[in-house]
Write a structure and sequence with these properties.
The chain is mainly beta and 320 residues long. It has five helices and 19 strands. An eleven-stranded mixed beta sheet has the order 2-7-11-10-1-9-8-3-4-5-6, with helices on both faces. The protein is elongated, with a radius of gyration of 26 Å. 28% of the residues are buried.
Length: 320
């Protein structure tokens, strides 16, 4: 599918951006050409470097996806488009300089294809040899320009990750309560306040305490609804460098505070183990900090106040 995407886009306007050979021949002022005038009109981005490739696409609902696999981090995609929109033609090279530039193109650049909502597409190849200015060569016009990358580091050409997993949105929870089949919240050492909840059409159908699974309990439907909807907006934060090493004591998920498990309609299970920051005391600012471990072992930081309507004991949901 990715190959087909690339071949179709090659039928569009073809540009080659390169660095090096920019001093060949006489120069004349460029046209101030902007490569991405309207980032909101971009519907697809294809990036490739040697054997690595990345496809980002915008759905009909306006959500970015990493190919057909994952939801994309919209902030990262927006930053990429802003970067590409910062590319400006500066000085046009002479015909001799343009021809030398075209003949000197290498294979280590970053290829960029942009698809627009009107069905048009632009294709670029970016190169950044050491110590040279970026340039652009237009195959259609047989003309070349030096380039400015306004406000960005030109090294993005070599450093931009093309791993799909680096572009996926780190999402906790679910998009909507109807994605759930069941929820379980286990409080370590407190089976009475630990509970399991069967969900149907986004509503709690049956709630039981883990201390007595045979006997359903009656809960406040409004509070349960708030609880279920909180699972659509769970927040976490990437760890700062050296953060775990700076804790007062080693983080031990073997002595966790609670464990949240979400059984999805697809049959998949999301499991989050949550532990408080070691050494926290009631009045200490660190008492609001917790750490979460995902199914695959990734550790994230959470603000416990963000989770105050999610991490509830069963007693807070009961109807009195």
């Amino acid at each position: 599918m990715a190959d087909a995407f690339w071949k179709v886009r090659l039928a569009g306007l073809f540009f080659v951006l390169a660095v090096g050979l920019c001093g060949c021949g006489e120069v004349q002022k460029g046209e101030g050409f902007v490569f991405v005038r309207d980032t909101s009109a971009v519907r697809g981005v294809w990036l490739s470097r040697r054997l690595d490739a990345l496809w980002l696409r915008k759905t009909a609902r306006g959500e970015w996806r990493v190919g057909e696999r994952w939801d994309a981090d919209a902030g990262k995609v927006h930053s990429l488009l802003e970067l590409l929109s910062a590319l400006r033609c500066d000085v046009a090279l002479s015909a001799e300089g343009a021809d030398s530039l075209r003949k000197g193109l290498g294979g280590d650049g970053l290829q960029v294809c942009l698809e627009y909502s009107k069905g048009t597409s632009d294709v670029y190849s970016l190169f950044l040899p050491s110590g040279k200015r970026p340039c652009v060569y237009s195959e259609a016009k047989r003309q070349a320009w030096t380039m400015d990358v306004l406000g960005f580091d030109e090294n993005f050409i070599a450093n931009l990750s093309l791993l799909g997993s680096d572009w996926k949105r780190f999402a906790l929870g679910v998009s909507r309560p109807s994605d759930l089949r069941a929820v379980q919240l286990l409080w370590k050492g407190d089976s009475l306040n630990s509970f399991s909840m069967q969900v149907g059409d986004g509503y709690a159908m049956r709630v039981v305490s883990l201390a007595n699974r045979a006997l359903p309990v009656e809960c406040d439907t409004a509070l349960v609804s708030v609880f279920l909807h909180s699972l659509t907006s769970l927040r976490s934060y990437a760890l700062r460098e050296g953060e775990l090493d700076s804790l007062r004591a080693p983080l031990d998920f073997g002595h966790f505070a609670c464990q949240l498990s979400l059984l999805l309609q697809t049959g998949d299970t999301l499991c989050y183990t949550i532990a408080a920051a070691p050494g926290a005391v009631q009045e200490d600012a660190v008492s609001n900090v917790g750490y979460l471990q995902t199914n695959d072992g990734e550790i994230r930081r959470i603000a416990l106040t963000d989770w105050d309507v999610t991490l509830l004991p069963l007693s807070d949901l009961l109807l009195f």
